[in-house]
Amino acid sequence: MTDLDPGSLDPGSLDPDMAQAAIEHCYEQGWSDGLPLVPVSRPLLERFLATVDRAPDEVIGHLPQFDRSVTVELAAINAAMAGCRPEYFPVVLAAWDALVLERSTGGGGWQSTSGPAPLIVVNGPVATELGINGAGGVFGPGFRANMTIGRAIGLIVRNAYGIRPHVLEQATQGLPGRWTMCIAENEAESPWEPLSVEAGVGPGVSAVSATLLRTSEFVDNRHTSSAEQLLADFADTLSRTGAWIFRNASAGVVFCPEHAQMLAAAGFGRAEVRAWLAEHCGRMVSDLAAVGKDGLGDKGVRHADGTREAGFDPLLASAEPKNLLLAVAGARNAGISMVVRIFSDWSGRAVPVRARERAEVGA
Amino acid sequence: MAVNGTRGPGSLVILDPTDESSPDVRTAIERPASLDGLRVGLLDIAKPRGDVFLDRLAELLAERGITVRRYAKPTFTKPMPPDLRREITTECDVVIEALAD
């Protein structure tokens, strides 16, 4: 075992046959999500651990139903396997910590029939430093940091918790892009304060916000100059009955810069957008009755009833951030935004990225 | 354990990404040959319509002369509260758990 810095090696001296054999070994152990893994050596692990000021045996997640834990060291091994560079690791840990704040991840959320996907939003200088894309093609693919940070979370769930499809994971169909939705907020072109600032972290501080999603759906609207018409288009997509299974549902919008700037120019801040959508998102009881979702049981699960009086059921439980996450990302080349559907609700709290002081890394 | 790793091809030690520090395999009791004389519990995990399934199961068991005790988790989204687990293990020899949706 030697401490090889891959960047210093002559490409002509690399041994692809050995690399392939190591990759196959990882497949045989059942560690892979289906794509090749980076085999992790002790020196590589040490480079990851050197980027943070946290004890390797610190427990950062625990699931009581099968008594499995995630430690900083296990997270580092999985992040390395996912293809992260060592300097991404503080962001992986912040993303993990942000997900632990989610009500749904402490119970059966990772095992759910819905197969929920983390949405990871990175703010602050770390996004530029690591090359986390927040502009064109933000939902990928094409960017190492975006793809591998999200994948690291998936491998931690798979390997540290042992939650695998057909075993402890009950996803009926799962979700396309389940482990790849890591984006930077496009702060340069956003008219609003960073998401992380709204979520409690100071301006200029690198931080990660995260929640679990059930799906995402685009809204393409390029030909109105009315902020209200634009918001009404979002309200229509947000209010679909198919995704609505409890009394209320939480959601989010990742606005493209053009849509966000148009709303801001009309006087809408995040709070005003939220208030407008909280008022307008929802369906008539008759619409819900037509799809067998008008009834509300004790636990708030929607079911066919047919006896309710005419009325309007609001989608969102409140106009608070926990029920409607708003971020800005993508290119300023068209009016295309993404509606996302939150699995339960969002903690509303961002987690600062805590990297060890740069001078110490590799010391 | 992750620190030990596994020996991969050649002399490289490839680190293990799984949490094997605590066993995740628990010993299940032997499957009983018959329910005669056993105390049977029915556990509703609180998913919608689990009660429909368990009600029918209780009827079928009653036809065989077996009475059941009924239990319910407060929510399917969290593990069973320890008190409920103790209650069931004290009062039952076998338990049937229903997953419905």
**Regarding quaternary structure, how should these chains be classified?**
heterodimer
Which band does the percent of strand residues of chain A land in? 15-25%
| Largest interface summary | A-B, 41 and 27 residues
What would you call the structural class of chain B? Answer: alpha/beta
What's the architecture of the domain at 31-98 in chain B, going by CATH?
Answer: 3-Layer(aba) Sandwich
Beta-strand segment tally of chain B: 5
Q: Which word captures the global form of chain B? A: extended
The helix count of chain A comes to 11
N/C terminus separation of chain A: 20 Å
Note poorly predicted spans of chain B.
Answer: none
Count of discrete domains of chain A:
1
Strand order of the largest sheet of chain B: 4-3-5
Profile the largest sheet of chain A. Answer: 7 strands, mixed
Helical content of chain B stands at 10-25%
Task: Name the overall outline of chain A.
Answer: globular
Give the fraction of residues assigned to helices of chain A: 25-40%
Roughly what is the average pLDDT of chain B, rounded to an integer?
A: 82
CATH overall fold name of the domain at 31-98 in chain B: Rossmann fold
